């Protein structure tokens, strides 16, 4: 069976269960923490996650837990009308993050949660992923574009 389908089914079940118990926010926070720091052991799992873990072990699906957690987070935020965005910059930039959040919230008409990463390989600028869209405004991409244009205009490999 496809891993995406499996993850979607378990994530949907977890989302429904957390809606019944009212623990969606707690579970989502703990799932994000587990994904952010996979090597660390949490003190105590939320009851809903404890139950999911037992079910995954019983069904031999523990290797799919990362996919299930990512699907759950996406479904949870979608159910709350929150958009997820990932901002990657060459250096930390809280001002840029705030400006982008303001623009995105105005564009989408709702809350936007931005996760920031730092990647010095970008050299400068940023990349922004929202849903299935990617805005690549990095210096690295601009240099690559110029290089490609140079190669095409000279008909040779640089």
Task: Reconstruct the topology from this structure.
Layout lengths: L2 H19 L2 H13 L10 H13 L5 H15 L3 E7 L4 H15 L3 E7 L6 E6 L2 E6 H16 L4
Parallel strand pairs: 1-2
Antiparallel strand pairs: 1-3, 3-4
Helix pairs in contact: 1-4, 2-4
The sequence of SSEs as H and E is HHHHEHEEEH
Radius of gyration, whole Å: 20 Å
Tally of DSSP helical segments: 6
Percent range of helical residues: 55-70%
How confident is the prediction overall: mean pLDDT? Answer: 89
Strand order of the largest sheet: 2-1-3-4
Number of strands: 4
Termini separation: 45 Å
Secondary-structure-based class equals alpha+beta
Low-pLDDT runs of 5+ residues are: none
Instruction: Tell me the strand percentage band.
Output: 15-25%
Largest sheet: 4 strands, mixed
Shape verdict: elongated
Give an account of the 3D structure.
The chain has 158 residues and is of the alpha+beta class. It is 58% helix and 16% strand. The protein contains six helices and four strands; from the N terminus they run ααααβαβββα. The chain has helices at 3-21, 24-36, 47-59, 65-79, 94-108, 139-154; strands at 83-89, 112-118, 125-130, 133-138. The chain has a four-stranded mixed sheet. Helix 1 (3-21) crosses helix 4 (65-79) and helix 2 packs across helix 4 (65-79). The longest helix is centred in the N-terminal third of the chain and has 19 residues, at 3-21. It starts with a helix and ends with a helix.
């Amino acid at each position: 069976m496809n891993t995406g389908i499996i993850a979607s089914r378990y994530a949907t079940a977890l989302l429904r269960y957390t809606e019944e118990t009212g623990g969606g926010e707690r579970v989502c926070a703990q799932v994000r923490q587990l994904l952010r720091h996979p090597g660390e052991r949490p003190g105590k799992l939320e009851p809903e996650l404890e139950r999911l873990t037992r079910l995954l072990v019983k069904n031999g699906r523990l290797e799919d837990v990362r996919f299930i957690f990512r699907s759950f987070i996406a479904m949870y935020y979608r159910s709350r009308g929150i958009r997820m965005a990932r901002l990657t910059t060459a250096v930390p930039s809280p001002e840029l993050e705030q400006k982008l959040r303001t623009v995105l919230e105005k564009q989408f008409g709702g809350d936007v949660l931005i996760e920031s990463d730092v990647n010095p390989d970008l050299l400068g600028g940023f990349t922004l992923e929202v849903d299935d869209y990617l805005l690549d405004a990095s210096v690295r991409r601009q240099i690559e574009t110029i290089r490609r244009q140079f190669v095409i205009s000279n008909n040779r490999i640089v």
